[in-house]
Write a structure and sequence with these properties.
The complex is a heterodimer of chains A (309) and B (608). With 309 residues, chain A is mostly helical. Chain A has a domain at 93-271: Orthogonal Bundle (MetI-like fold), CATH 1.10.3720.10. Chain A has twelve helices and no strands. Chain A has helices at 3-33, 47-56, 63-77, 91-126, 131-145, 148-162, 177-203, 206-213, 218-230, 232-255, 261-271, 274-302. The longest helix of chain A has 36 residues, at 91-126. Chain B has 608 residues and is of the alpha+beta class. Helices cover 29% and strands 21% of the residues of chain B. Chain B is built from 16 helices and 25 strands. In chain B, the strands form seven sheets. In chain B, strands 1, 8, 9, 10, 11, 12, 13, 16, 17, 18 and 21 form an eleven-stranded mixed beta sheet that branches. A four-stranded antiparallel beta sheet of chain B has the order 4-5-7-6, with helices on one face. In chain B, helix 9 (325-340) packs antiparallel against helix 11 (398-410) and helix 15 runs antiparallel to helix 16 (552-568). The model of chain B is unreliable at 1-36 (pLDDT under 50). The chains are: A mainly alpha (309), B alpha+beta (608).
Chain lengths: 309, 608
């Protein structure tokens, strides 16, 4: 790694920090501007109890004081505070519980999307305009144009309600299968299409013709020359794909009752569980920022022609 | 060659897919997940998603209460006798004693704990644990939703004063096995309170750890079950506590509470036999489930009312009306009451809500009993013999209700071609939900029939709660479930200072409205005779009298007067009494639930 790359990474990290800080600040003030509060319920508690609770969680102080206290706790102690709804549990504790499931879900979905997308794309390119190419293209068009909440519900109706093959509950054995498929279909279809077009592009390049003319075997051309170069666009998609999976999991976890961070995010907003809202938002923001950074760096590793600046 | 390549690639893809699936299953193995395993030793149920808390003092939800009722043992508990009748019996106490009235009118109860009671970690349970738990639950510092459940105990009021940190409830541990507690007055539902989770004991050294109730390792209880495992958002497992004094009577060894609030998901698991009880079903499936599962689809009563509430300060008189002050309020009362007559409650329950609900004609719900302990309170409400409650909600009365409503409204509004032309546009506020929306749409169409425009506005739950509490609405959806079988739990929420006073009685313009009258001389209160007083001078006084009244007959009379006052304002328009819908497998025997909706699985057995 040369100094230029190192400088680039440092610069990007600084930018990432700035992004996270902006996210924290905006979320904090928007969240408090939304009507309602964590201690409201159908059965109201008394004024004195409300005041005692607000004092206990420091919510009786002016908003800007709360904001700086919050920032200070995160920076100096990495303390995200207690959950206001699940009393007795800390935000870190709840989030790490959810992350266990979400990471498993996300990684498996990403892996499936990547592998099957590249393979299907390559098949489609090699069998261009043949029946298998057409089938793949029709299916991927359908998957790319269908949002995950429609796909999820469709799969739920088909495999859980009608066929009864799989559980509709993310906790049950095999329960993560449907959410994984739901999450992976869109990026898989996208990667298939990317791979297909870039593979076709590469196969038409002069150096491939040269290789062919030199009598290099077909296998060597595909795996040695074509595949590696046609993967560059796929790697650029790596970051957006993980972002899609992270945000998609918010909806998908809700549909399949998967106890992950996406579901915690939604319920924390409904409950106005302020520290939980902040905690989940920060974690999701960091995930997306880091994933984008990693994919940009990978981009350079795969294609040395690309300059980082 | 090309074919071979394609085949190879396809094979590679299949293999990775399998590898991925295999990996996932490995992940599932690290915890014992009994879903699908049906045996006579355990029952799989789903009553709700992750409970907010299972700390007995902090819990205010029905699902949490169900868990706590299995994990803890208070002085009293709910049980079903051989004939299927529910009763409250002594649990940790040897017997539920009668109170002894003191000279100052307070009442003292003395309880003796059973011999050899222990906590789930083996330590002995003492009377002090109860005293500590009660003071903790009632304290300002804890700020529990249900802290007010101790308001009947002497000393509670002093504890709620600002800065009162040393105040304690008038309850003491005479020795390790004797509890003495003094109530401000005789309370007919006292035994029921003793069976309420907020009154269950906790141990001081256990709850010192604020996170004690979130982890099986730190969760120490004293009931028929122990918290064996808690996978957050996924599964809570209870295992029988062999050191519980009545362990021999507990038939179910293990209860798995699956945590989900997705009705479709619940139904799928019930249908494939994985779960034996689910506490929710998708609304659009209710009709077909009733047919498909006649023995397993259950509807039971609940102590609650679904109603529409008006903001009392919302002016609904036509523009240019010359009425003002008390006269205007009297007119608005008449108008609101007339509008209550326009709705077909049978249509709402049969065609819109479809959950076996019962059309409501009173605010105090069906299921709450009157002074004699057997007749329903609502049957004696409304002072008429022809029907129960304040209006006739039968199908036959629909036309006459409609006619009388239109006649009343004609007094205040212009009526042309069967429509009122100068009724101001109303806005109906509800929290986002298909069910509430459907009911809102029906109400809208019923009003549109006579020319009244009502627009629908929905808000997300927490925003809605805030808007309604602040009184920033004209009409809103509302609902109330009682905490115990006593009408006061429906009535004391409407005092001026109550946090649940969504109607805004005695607030804003209504604070100075000298329009209400109260005469309790016939009930023996010579000093209570108010004519044209404010809400605070009448209703608040009345509730106070009810709370201090020791004669049951008089007390119930007073409660009827209170409901009369509420209903005469027209601000509460009851639509139906709540029911609890659930599905239970026919292989389960010995299950019961109490009127508050707590479900009891300890005495169940499963026939295979």
């Amino acid at each position: 790694m040369n100094s230029k790359t190192a400088f680039y990474i440092v610069k990007r990290l600084a930018l990432a920090l700035l992004t996270v800080w902006v996210v924290i600040t905006v979320t904090f003030f928007v969240m408090h501007a939304v009507p309602g509060g964590p201690f409201l319920s159908e059965k109201a508690i008394s004024e004195t109890a409300m005041k005692a609770l607000e004092a206990k969680y420091g919510m009786d102080k002016p908003l800007h004081v709360q904001y700086f206290t919050y920032l200070k706790d995160i920076v100096t102690k990495f303390d995200f505070g207690p959950s206001l709804k699940q009393r007795g549990r800390t935000v870190i504790d709840i989030i790490s519980d959810g992350m266990k499931t979400s990471v498993k879900l996300g990684l498996v979905a990403a892996f499936i999307a990547l592998v099957s997308g590249v393979v299907l794309g390559a098949i489609a390119a090699l069998r261009r305009n043949k029946i298998i190419d057409k089938i793949i293209m029709v299916l991927t068009t359908a998957f790319v144009s269908m949002p995950s909440f429609i796909m999820g519900v469709l799969l739920l109706i088909l495999f859980v309600i009608q066929l009864k093959w799989l559980p509709g509950n993310g906790n049950a054995k095999g329960g993560l299968l449907l959410p994984i498929i739901t999450l992976s279909l869109y990026p898989m279809a996208y990667i298939t299409r990317l791979t297909r077009s870039s593979m076709l592009d590469v196969l038409g390049q002069d150096y491939i013709r040269t290789a062919k003319a030199k009598g290099v075997s077909k296998w060597k051309i595909i795996f040695g020359h074509a595949m590696k170069n046609s993967l560059i666009p796929v790697i650029t998609y790596f970051g957006p794909m993980l972002a899609y999976i992270v945000t998609g999991s918010i909806v998908v976890e809700q549909i399949f009752a998967v106890p992950g961070i996406g579901r915690q995010f939604v319920s924390s907003i409904i409950n106005r569980d302020y520290p939980m809202i902040m905690g989940t938002t920060i974690v999701l923001a960091i995930l997306i920022v880091v994933m984008n950074l990693v994919s940009d760096i990978l981009y350079k590793v795969v294609d040395p022609r690309i300059k980082l600046d | 060659m090309k074919k071979f390549v394609a085949l190879f690639l396809a094979l590679a893809m299949m293999l990775t897919l399998f590898a991925a699936c295999g990996k996932k299953d490995d992940g599932g193995k690290d915890v014992d997940k009994p879903s699908g395993e049906v045996s006579a030793e355990q029952i799989n149920v789903c009553i709700a998603s992750e409970p907010d808390t299972i700390d007995p003092a902090l819990n205010s939800a029905v699902d949490g209460a169900t868990l706590i009722a299995h994990l803890f043992s208070g002085l009293a508990k709910w049980e079903q006798d051989d004939s299927g009748k529910l009763e409250i019996v002594a649990d940790a106490a040897t017997e539920l004693t009668e109170g002894v009235e003191n000279e100052d009118g307070t009442v003292t109860y003395t309880y003796t704990l059973r011999d050899g009671l222990t906590w789930s970690d083996g330590q002995p349970l003492t009377a002090n644990d109860f005293i500590f738990a009660w003071n903790r639950a009632a304290s300002q510092e804890l700020g529990a939703d249900y802290g007010y459940m101790f308001e009947v105990v002497d000393g509670y009021a002093a504890m709620q004063e600002e800065g009162a940190t040393d105040a304690k409830l008038n309850a003491t541990a005479v020795d390790d096995k004797t509890i003495e507690v003094t109530l401000t007055t005789a309370v007919p539902y006292w035994n029921e309170l003793l069976a309420f989770p907020t009154y269950f004991p906790v141990r001081e050294d256990v709850v010192e750890n604020e996170a004690w109730a979130t982890d099986p390792a730190t969760y120490v209880s004293n009931g028929p079950y122990k918290l064996a495992a808690w996978e957050h958002n996924s599964l809570i497992t209870l295992e029988k506590n062999d050191s519980y004094y009545d362990a021999d009577a507990i038939t179910m060894k293990k209860i798995n509470f699956y945590l989900s609030d997705d009705a479709n998901n619940m139904l799928a698991n019930f249908k494939n036999g994985d779960w034996q009880l689910i506490d929710d079903v998708p609304t659009n499936e209710i009709a077909s489930l009733k047919e498909e599962y006649p023995d397993e689809f259950k509807i039971t009563g609940q102590l609650g009312t679904y109603y529409v509430c008006w903001n009392i300060n919302e002016d609904i008189l036509p523009e240019g009306s010359d009425l003002s002050g008390v006269e205007a309020e009297a007119a608005r009362e008449e108008i609101r009451n007339a509008i209550s007559l326009l709705f077909d409650r049978n249509y709402i329950v049969n065609d819109v809500a479809q959950g076996g609900q019962v059309p409501a004609s009173s605010f105090v719900a069906m299921g709450l009993t009157d002074a004699d302990g057997s007749t329903e309170f609502y049957q004696n409400a409304g002072h008429n013999d022809a029907f129960d409650g304040y209006y006739d909600v039968s199908q036959d009365a629909l036309q006459s209700n409609y006619d009388s409503a239109v006649e009343t409204l004609k007094k205040y509004y212009k009526f042309e071609d069967g429509k009122f032309t100068d009724f101001p546009t109303l806005t109906y506020l509800y929290n986002t939900s298909e069910g509430h929306k459907a009911i809102g749409e029906y109400l809208q169409s019923a009003l549109a029939n006579i020319g009244i425009n009502m627009t629908l506005e929905n808000q997300e739950w927490n925003t809605f709660l805030n808007t309604r509490k602040e009184g920033n609405y004209s009409i809103a959806r509302n609902g109330w479930l009682a905490d115990y079988n006593d009408p006061i739990s429906f009535l004391d929420m409407w005092t001026t200072a109550s946090g649940n006073n969504d109607v805004q009685f005695g607030k804003g313009d209504n604070a100075t409205m000298a329009h209400y009258s109260l005469d309790l001389t016939a009930q023996g209160y010579e000093d209570v005779k108010v004519e044209n007083g404010t809400w605070a001078e009448t209703y608040d006084v009345l509730i106070n009298k009810i709370k201090t009244c020791t004669d049951d007959t008089v007390r119930y009379e007073l409660m009827h007067i209170a409901e009369d006052m509420l209903m005469s304002t027209g601000c509460l328009c009851p639509l139906y009494y709540y029911t609890d819908l659930f599905m239970i497998s026919s292989s389960v025997n010995g299950y019961f639930s109490n009127p508050l909706g707590y479900k009891y699985f300890m005495y169940t057995t499963i026939s295979e």
